Amino acid sequence: MRVLITGVTGFVGSHLVDYINTLGGCQVFGTKRRRSPLDNLHSPVELIDCELTDYRSVENAIMESRPDRIFHLAAQSYVPQSWDAPEHTLDNNIQSTLNILEAILHCDPSIRLQVAGSSEEYGIVLPHECPITEEQPLRPLSPYGVSKVACDLLSRQYAKSYDLHVVVTRAFNHTGPRRGEVFATSNFAKQIAEIEAGKCNPYIQVGNLNARRDWTDVRDIVRAYWLALDCCDSGSVYNIASGSAVTIGDMLNQLLLLSTADIKITHDPSRMRPSDVPLLLGDSTAFSALTGWTPSIPFSQTLADLLNYWRSSVLC
After folding, report:
1. Integer angstrom CA distances of residue 71 from 45, 120, 226
2. pLDDT surpasses 70 at 272
3. Mind listing the pLDDT tens digit for each residue in 20-40?
4. Domain 177-213+244-280+297-314 is in which class?
5. What pLDDT does 208 receive?
6. In the chain, which ranges are E strands?
7. Are 279 and 125 in contact, with CB atoms under 8 Å apart?
8. Which residues of 14-43 are buried (b: 16+ CB within 10 A; e: fewer)?
């Protein structure tokens, strides 16, 4: 089987490469930009330079790799940046998705496509609406969330209009080794590792600690993405979540308990968002019923692995 992954050099993409290579019988290709760092890649993948916002570049990547499956993971995915650069976020995420759909339609309509949506599409969720099912109204609270709603709807429209095999997944928060340092779990872990290494003062900078999030280990998420194209219905959308919500403050406390350093918490107003989703708690019953998937890695193990990743990184 030939597999193409967009955004292969990123956090989730690199873990998906690792997982697919354990399956055997697959040749893995991945798109990257010329300036993309390759530090996350630890297993075999054939890299293709591709600018996803340029249709011809996408078409060339598909013609070169001739994939049976495409996993579309590439995106501007940092929510705070979407407020600073809303036009870039919308253009990048929507145009990239459109180009992939169009290229599949014109190059090989038999290709199976997984499109990575996001729990950020749900936005404002009232307490009585949790856990969140796929029928929950979409009320995004950020330009990033809006961009993902557009990609979600566009993908399902192409599936229905042109009989393409497209599955949209809405993964809730996920983390683990290699997570970018701008995201809360990784940012806290990096700060702790730097404090332990004596590289900064023993004060950890935080923003809103009250938001509750549903975290899953990235290694469980990529396994779910593979199953989505094995088992799920084309033109449909599926939540992928642990079904358990933890406040950002409790997550931070779990990380601090893994360290022997004496660390104080200080609030940094610049880390606060213009608006924040107070609760994201997912229901992945529909996905699990079709695939048999359940998370296998405890959150405590995920945080330990993440902290150890940053301990190794800050010493390099």
Report:
1. 14, 19, 9
2. no
3. 999 999 999 999 998 889 999
4. alpha beta
5. 87
6. 2-6, 27-32, 46-49, 69-72, 112-116, 165-171, 174-175, 203-206, 212-213, 216-217, 236-240, 246-247, 264-267
7. yes
8. bbbbbbbbeeeebbbbbbbeeebeeebbee
Q: What pLDDT was estimated at residue 270?
A: 76
Whole-angstrom distance, CA of residue 181 vs CA of residue 300: 19
> The tokens of 276 are what?
């924040």
CA distance to 126, 239, 285, per residue, from 289 (Å) = 26, 12, 6
User: Residue 32: which residues within 8 A CB-CB, separation 6 or more?
Assistant: 8, 9, 38, 47, 48, 49, 50
Six token digits for residue 179: 């997570």
69 backbone dihedrals φ, ψ, rounded to 5°: -135, 145
Residue-wise pLDDT tens digits, 117-150: 999 999 988 889 999 999 999 999 999 999 999 9
| 274 CB neighbour count, 10 Å cutoff | 8
Could you give the CA distance from residue 111 to residue 81 in angstroms, rounded to a whole number?
32
The average confidence (pLDDT) of the chain is 95
On the question of pLDDT at 277 being above 80, the answer is: no
Q: Where in the chain is the domain with CATH 3.90.25.10?
A: 177-213+244-280+297-314
Contacts 24+ apart (CB under 8 A), 296-300: 296/217, 296/220, 297/217, 297/219, 297/220, 299/215, 299/217, 299/242, 299/244, 299/246, 299/254, 300/254
pLDDT of residue 275 exceeding 70: no
Specify which residues 238 forms β-bridges with: 169
* Whole-prediction pTM: 0.95
Superfamily of domain 2-174+215-240: NAD(P)-binding Rossmann-like Domain (3.40.50.720)
Report the first-to-last Cα separation within the chain, whole angstroms.
Answer: 37
Segment 236-248 mean pLDDT: 97
CATH 3.40.50.720 domain locations along the chain: 2-174+215-240
Output the CA angle 5-132-301, nearest 5 degrees.
60
